[in-house]
# Entry
Amino acid sequence: MSSSAGGRLFILLLLYFLCSSVAYDPMDPDGNITIKWDFMTSNDNHYTVLVSIYNYQLYRHIEIPGWRLGWTWPNDEVIWDMRGAESTNQGDCSRFKGDALPHCCDKSPTIIDLPIGAPYNLRTADCCRSGVLSSLAQGPSLIRASFQMVIDSRNITDDANPKPYNFTLGVPGYSCSNATTVAPSKFKSDTQRTTQAQSTWEVICSYSQFRESATPSCCVSLSTFYDNTIVSCPDCSCGCQGTPTSPLCLRDDEQSRLKELSSDGDGSQGPLLCTKHMCPISVHWHVKVSYKEYWRVKMTITNYNMNKNYSDWNLVLQHPNLRSLVQIFSFNYHPLLQYGSINDTGVFWGIEYYNDMLLNYGENGNVQSEMLLHKDTEEFTFKGGWPFPRRLSFNGHDCVMPPPDLYPSLPKDYSMASSPLVYDVTVFLSSILLSVVLVLL
Ligand SMILES: *[C@@H]1O[C@H](CO)[C@@H](O)[C@H](O)[C@H]1NC(C)=O
Ligand SMILES: *[C@@H]1O[C@H](CO)[C@@H](O)[C@H](O)[C@H]1NC(C)=O
Ligand SMILES: *[C@@H]1O[C@H](CO)[C@@H](O)[C@H](O)[C@H]1NC(C)=O
Ligand SMILES: *[C@@H]1O[C@H](CO)[C@@H](O)[C@H](O)[C@H]1NC(C)=O
Ligand SMILES: *[C@@H]1O[C@H](CO)[C@@H](O)[C@H](O)[C@H]1NC(C)=O
Ligand SMILES: *[C@@H]1O[C@H](CO)[C@@H](O)[C@H](O)[C@H]1NC(C)=O
# Structure
């Protein structure tokens, strides 16, 4: 019997890995980044193209250092002018004479967004956020980036001719399709009039966690009010101290060495605090209180990076009781994937100016939240690991869970009736008060 259960588990795991390698994310099955090329006007061989990048992913966002869009031209195309972005290299424009040289003559240009303070005459609508894109759940009005370019090309919109190819997004984990011709985009120029592009191309980029990195970067620890054991993150979840592949780490009393080590700039490869799990991020899940009709969980996210802050971090949680989430304190929440009664997944993120930035370890690098859940009578139990998350991911990276046989267990003499019943109403009211205070902060 146990061997057949093991076999089933193995097949499930195998399926999961197979699915993962073809970029399927069960928490966001339709997620993709869509790039549109809208040909707006043409004049002889000059085409004005509006390029837009849409992040149609529920919770994955594009962080600093941002997207770096690349492709390869099929012929000797050049970019004469660019607004809302720029190419990193001008390339070899020596075949052109005169005062005005093209913006870019590279066979394979790399285009990056402009910074927030870019001059007005170089801007377009939806440009200039240093390549950062929000997600559908966290910031639906900030999922689009766009730039406009004037290109010189022979017959580029003629479908018989080759299109640019080898599109890349410049963000780890993504791969992009070739361009295909789709129905021309329509634009609302005002409330009464709609205009449309002369023709439109589409490129679809999709994400795979395994393409990005096979090494996890987050782990989960567990505790409860009914058991004294704290189940820590599994050892070596993200690497083992002292092995060649593990990241550099410092002990708590070595923080003064940070300055001499952190000369490499963006902090992405900077040292971690030395821990047994060696993960840059851990999530602690504490089952805190049981009331008659509700139960309360505290979540703490800790950053072990010595010099990396996470702006706009997010946490995706799968738990069967999420559909009865009554209240969440000091985080934002949005349910994901609501198929009928299967409403067990949601994304949490920080409150702007309060805890949307997860600071590095030396600067009190943690954020915390509590949530109040209703005990759905037919399902709720503290037994068999039910109160623990089924799946957690930080910034779209799955967190390593402790093995289920180590989960805290319910003491034999524990009875639901021994929980503090009378608290229900007062706790509920005071928690509403607390969340109002937090929002005002
Ligand atoms: C990409 O995402 C959009 C928006 O969710 C969706 O309409 C489209 O079908 C997706 N395309 C692919 C190829 O997944
Ligand atoms: C553009 O394509 C048309 C038909 O495909 C062809 O007759 C014409 O010569 C082409 N022009 C250039 C500049 O290649
Ligand atoms: C496609 O891009 C990759 C990475 O930029 C490059 O190594 C490869 O040579 C390119 N392929 C072609 C056919 O240009
Ligand atoms: C994409 O286009 C290039 C050049 O046209 C071609 O060599 C390649 O096979 C295409 N890739 C796919 C997946 O269709
Ligand atoms: C992290 O944020 C703190 C506080 O805003 C700032 O002082 C520090 O320079 C930031 N560190 C990095 C590596 O960005
Ligand atoms: C899903 O659960 C959330 C609370 O977690 C609730 O706000 C939402 O209405 C639920 N949706 C459905 C379709 O039940």
Observations:
- Residues 1-21, 417-429, 436-441 have pLDDT under 50 and may be disordered.
